[in-house]
Write a structure and sequence with these properties.
With about 375 residues, the protein is of the alpha/beta class. The chain contains 13 helices and 16 strands. It folds into 3 domains: about 50 residues; about 100 residues, Copper Amine Oxidase, Chain A, domain 1 (2-Layer Sandwich), CATH 3.30.457.10; about 200 residues, Aminopeptidase (3-Layer(aba) Sandwich), CATH 3.40.630.40. Bound molecules: zinc ion (ZN). The site of zinc ion has 5 residues, from loops.
């Protein structure tokens, strides 16, 4: 409460609030006339919305208060309720924060984990793996700021202040496309995405069953299953995890590498969008934002380790298959069939087996972390 004592107006607000409380007590003792006389005209709610001036902050010697003030000031300056001061975040998480001016980078570290942030960019590196933030690290007045969703979904779980993962016993694997939907293709190599995804999913299912999980695929043969039906199937089975397997393609034949998607948090822009904001509505799948990130990160990291391909990052998109899930879920893009070299790799059983192993490793690690936490 000390914040209220440093500025005259705020302090008066505090007095008004006290009188208001006295007034309320009076009502209970039926002395109604005093309530009418009490100076309740400035309701205490206004006090809370007041923000200390910059001078107040300079005078403040109290680090804890200063953090709160930095966040408040930042929100006032930017008009952005979701802006969070990077320094304040680091303090809250008890993480070390370093700036590298020449590289225009910041590094947060704690207990062997590091997050490298780039100034004016949404791209960050978590223990060397590329991750897309919802908001760029940007300077507002005297402070560098990040977004609230990135703090909640990435920084807090990574630097150990919140548990995100729940127990896993049933896993639903979703081989992308099928039936009349071929997905992407490389005609010269004769590669159809729907065949590649089914093959990887069957292999993955074998690995997971061996490890003791109950595994169900959304399709076991070449048939069309609606996107909503895939999520419904997982929900009906009370799945603990959902992984959709895909391969990529692009008009630019040079494009290659691996990327893993989670559902974009409510009100935030997807990774492919440069516009701020996005669907404000929270989908059922958004209940698991932090777990979705954890799973996507583990899968991306494991795919890179097993396959050694280019890191295109952990990204966010509002994929329909992820929106209505009742459990954590992600969508993995396991290589570009449109790229000559990668397409050739994808067409080999050896590559697809390594994809399956990588996905299995990641799911096992994810499930193990839930056991450690519980
Ligand atoms: Zn696909």
């Amino acid at each position: 409460m000390r914040i209220f004592n440093r500025s005259g107006t705020l302090f008066i607000g505090g007095v008004a609030a006290s009188l208001f409380l006295i007034g309320c007590q009076s009502t209970q003792s039926s002395r109604v006339e005093e309530v009418e006389e009490a100076p309740v005209a400035s309701p205490p709610v206004e006090v809370v919305t007041e923000v200390p001036s910059e001078q107040d902050i300079v005078r403040s010697g109290d680090a804890e208060m200063r953090e709160l003030e930095e966040d408040l000031l930042l929100r006032k300056k930017t008009g952005d309720e979701k802006a969070r001061s990077l320094k304040a975040i680091a303090k809250r998480l008890n993480a070390k924060l370093e700036r590298f001016p020449e590289e225009k980078e910041w590094k947060l570290s704690k207990e062997g984990r590091t997050l490298v942030l780039k100034e004016n960019s949404r791209i960050a590196f978590l223990d060397g793996i590329k991750v897309f933030l919802d908001r760029s690290l940007k300077k507002s007045g005297a402070y560098w700021s990040l977004g609230e969703s990135d703090e909640k979904i990435i920084l807090e779980p990574v630097f150990g202040v919140s548990a995100t993962v729940s127990q896993v016993s049933t896993v639903v694997i979703d081989p992308g496309h099928g039936g009349s939907q071929d997905g992407t293709k490389n005609e010269s190599l004769g590669v159809l995405e729907k065949e590649m995804t089914l093959d990887v999913s069957l292999r993955l299912s074998e690995h997971l069953e061996k490890a003791g999980f109950k595994v169900v695929l959304t399709r076991y043969d070449d048939r069309l299953v609606g996107l909503d039906d895939r999520a419904k199937m997982a929900n009906g089975l009370k799945a603990d995890l959902f992984v959709s397997v895909h391969f990529n393609a692009a008009l630019n034949k040079e494009a290659k590498g691996l990327e893993t998607y989670l559902l974009t948090p409510a009100g935030e822009p997807s990774s492919s969008s440069s516009e701020p904001g996005g669907d404000v509505v929270a989908y059922p799948g958004n209940r698991f934002d932090a777990a979705n990130f954890e799973l996507a990160y583990r899968i991306q990291s494991s795919l890179l380790e097993r396959l050694g391909r280019e890191d295109r990052g952990v990204k966010k998109a509002r994929f329909r298959v992820l929106k209505s899930l009742d459990c954590p879920g992600v969508l993995a893009e396991c290589g570009f069939v449109s790229n000559r070299d990668e397409g050739l790799l994808v067409s080999t059983a050896g590559y697809r087996e390594r994809v399956a192993q990588a996905l299995a490793d990641a799911i096992l690690e994810y499930a193990k972390s839930s056991k450690e936490e519980s």
